[in-house]
Amino acid sequence: MSNQPRLNSLGLHFSPLDLLLRGILADPHLRSRYEIYFPQTTGPTMALMHSHHPPEDCQNCEHRHLRMFCNLTPEALADYDGIGIMMSHARGAKLFTEGDPARNVFVICYGQVKISSTSRDGKTMILKIAGPGDVMGLSAVLANVPHEVTAEAIEPCQVKTVRKQEFVDFLGRHGIASMHAAQALSGEYLTVFHDAKRLALSGSAAGRLARLLLDWGRTSANGKPEIKFTMALTHEEIANMAGTSRETVTRLLNQFRRDQWITIKGTSLTIVKPDQLERLTA
After folding, report:
1. In this predicted structure, what is the pLDDT of residue 240?
2. Which residue from 83, 130, 187, 207 has the fewest beta carbons nearer than 10 Å?
3. pLDDT tens digits, one per residue of 259-273
4. Cα(48)–Cα(206) distance, rounded to whole angstroms?
5. How far is 162 from 253, CA to CA, in rounded Å?
6. Are residues 142 and 216 in the same domain?
7. Which domain holds residue 258?
């Protein structure tokens, strides 16, 4: 028998968002400060930028202030640093699989993880590329249901793994953490919404691919003028996300490069003329 605590052992009978909001409102200082720790997002959370030097612990991570969930108050950060364990995963390693019991929450510290779902007839759809600061498995843990997706490392990565009950208790102690978890859930919804909008409303494969590149590049840039990111996906996987074929992705990337809208060096892609790509998405 598993020794993992059950979520309902706390006597909670609330939805995941109810649980998070109760934690937020319980913090006497949070309501007057929440805007500082609740950054706004306008698109899918597809963080592709990462440090080349994985942090040894959360308190000494130099990129923490750029990552929504990890940008905690000193007290909450010290508590967060004391729970869970840091684990390194090789490219191709699966952190969890669709249908597995949700026993842990995973926070990416370094690297990229592919989130996908597979149909009964074996067709796989890539839903997003998760990057540093993204929280995986949160909705399944809070709803006490099996994982609805598969998470697979697409490059070497470092992930903080926290047991379900440890994470729930941590949210209960810190309203700021509850708020960040609520935004992580909101981000999951926005990702699905924007993906559906891109696939359904964009009339051309070029427009859908352009939107993907712009979303990834701007997330990676974090407000910096240079829109540059590392792309660890194959053309086949990009085609899966853009709703087109591998041949079309290869042709369009070559066309964008000939038009000098983008440059590609190895796995590094730089968007030189974002306004031209924007016109394709209109």
Report:
1. 87
2. 83
3. 999 999 988 999 999
4. 21
5. 39
6. no
7. 203-281
